[in-house]
Write a structure and sequence with these properties.
This protein has eight helices and seven strands; from the N terminus they run αααβαβαββαβααββ. It is α/β, with parallel strands linked by helices and 224 residues long.
Length: 224
Amino acid sequence: MARRRTSDFIGQAFRERMRQLNARHPWSHNDHFHSWILANLPEPCRSVLDVGCGRGELLTALAPHVDHVVGADIDEEMRDVAARHCERLTNVSVTDRVWNEVEGSFDAVTMIAVLHHLPVEEALRDVRRLLAPGGLLVVGLAVPVTLADHAWDMASMVTNPLIGMVKHPWPSRVMEPPAPFPVKDPSLSLAELRDLVQKVMPGAVLRRHLGFRHTILWTKPHRG
């Protein structure tokens, strides 16, 4: 896996200690970025398409802030869970259509840990088409390649259990819960991803973050 390239730089005992701490104080790296998405929604923001909506946590976070939220996910079980999770929210819908075939246009498109599951350049062009105009907000993963990449991953590895202890100070009784979502390692480095993003979306801002994540923020300009 991509993260192992970083963990290979440090000792087995340290890796095992980090694994135990992470298991005792687990936290969702993806949910952690909901506040970043909410803070960066374009204004005004009437409609949002959440690609790869999973269990619907982001849908419920977005619902109080926009008129209509659409969730799309390729996994039928995830769609069913998301629909049940949001069944009392009248401005949220979960579609069974492929995300890039959803009708209409959106003020924002969100993706959390999804872009690396897709053909990246094609997906970015589809997002550009769906925005009218509006903003793309991505939380993603990339392959660590450079020294800077590995340094950020090592910092994430060290701070991961500390953030977990702050968020969940009481140790979890579930030591190693199964992964709730389909998992896929990224195939592009941050530099490769940046080149593709700038090719399709000039001016997009890509930033590294702790938690083995980066963010992409872009606003589609108005015509003319």
